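ok, trying the design again with the full structure, not the truncated one.
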């Protein structure tokens, strides 16, 4: 800790989600879940809900720069989680501030697409992430759709494979390719592995049907010394809006603790994954909105007054 009982401080640089489920709102709640004070720099204001993204307004560079200067000139930021960037010029600006900071943990999430399928960044944003931010990142955290966009490949999905071993090898291969884009490590998130619908014309084999019914949550952590595979039971929940943001922010918080305690990055990944699993299990009752509701990051429940 800093100054006795003072909490750690982390910064989220991301877009605002008007529904409160993802983006800045999710990041701050995830930081707080680990006792970390969250500061924020808003890059964009989105008009979105659990069904769709209706509008995206990027803030002027001058406003983003003023926010960055205000935070870094005053607060003892230990980690930065980067979410929605929105433009190449914003990416370049953020890089300048990160390069000036000392001993900073950097986690880059890659929200190139919202959970409802809306594009949050085109080819210029993708290229800017790789050029400006990945080289400074301790870890990047793409999901399977984002990994496909980054690598210009088709996303991995269960219809392509019939065995666990085959799946693991493909995950490890893709994570290794992502590592080649410049970050120190990669956490490839497998939460969208079962998104694809069955193609009735191809009549999937019984093996694939069985594989789909026995879902597993698979994430692969690739780094300079190899790859680590994390497999856990699948939590079948509809209300998962903001899951990717929350996991990246939880990882940033745990990397702070791990760094001071001499723990490995794998330790931080395990802690963040376990916490997310608990949050997913606690989201069964989050009946908010007409679409997939927000993840229950803050352990919300009705209280007795």
């Amino acid at each position: 800790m800093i100054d006795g009982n003072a909490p750690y401080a982390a910064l989220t640089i991301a877009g605002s989600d008007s529904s409160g489920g993802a983006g800045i709102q999710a990041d701050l709640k995830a930081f707080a879940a680990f006792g970390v004070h969250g500061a924020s720099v808003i890059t964009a204001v989105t008009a979105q809900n659990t069904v769709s993204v209706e509008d995206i307004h990027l803030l002027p560079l001058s406003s983003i720069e003023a926010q960055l200067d205000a935070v870094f000139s005053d607060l003892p930021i230990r980690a930065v989680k980067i979410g929605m960037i929105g433009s190449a010029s914003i990416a370049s600006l953020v890089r300048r501030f990160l390069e000036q900071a000392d001993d900073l943990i950097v986690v880059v999430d890659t929200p190139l697409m919202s959970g409802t399928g809306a594009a949050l960044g085109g080819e210029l944003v993708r290229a800017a992430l790789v050029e400006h931010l990945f080289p400074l990142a301790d870890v990047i955290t793409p999901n399977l759709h984002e990994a496909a966009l980054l690598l210009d490949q088709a996303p991995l999905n269960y219809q392509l494979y019939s065995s666990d071993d085959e799946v693991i090898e493909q995950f490890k291969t893709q994570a290794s390719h992502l590592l080649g884009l410049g970050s120190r490590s990669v956490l490839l998130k497998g939460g969208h592995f079962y998104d694809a619908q069955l193609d009735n014309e191809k009549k999937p084999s019984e093996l694939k049907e069985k594989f789909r019914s026995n879902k597993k949550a698979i994430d692969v952590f690739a780094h300079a010394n190899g790859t680590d595979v994390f497999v856990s039971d699948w939590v079948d929940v509809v209300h998962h809006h903001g899951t990717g943001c929350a996991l990246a922010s939880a990882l940033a918080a745990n990397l702070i603790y791990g760094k001071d305690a001499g723990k490995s990055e794998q330790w931080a990944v395990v802690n963040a994954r376990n916490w997310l699993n608990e949050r997913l299990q606690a989201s069964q009752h989050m009946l908010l909105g007409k679409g997939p509701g927000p993840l229950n990051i803050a352990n919300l429940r009705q209280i007795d007054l």
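Keeping the full-length input from now on. The chain is about 40% helix and 20% strand.
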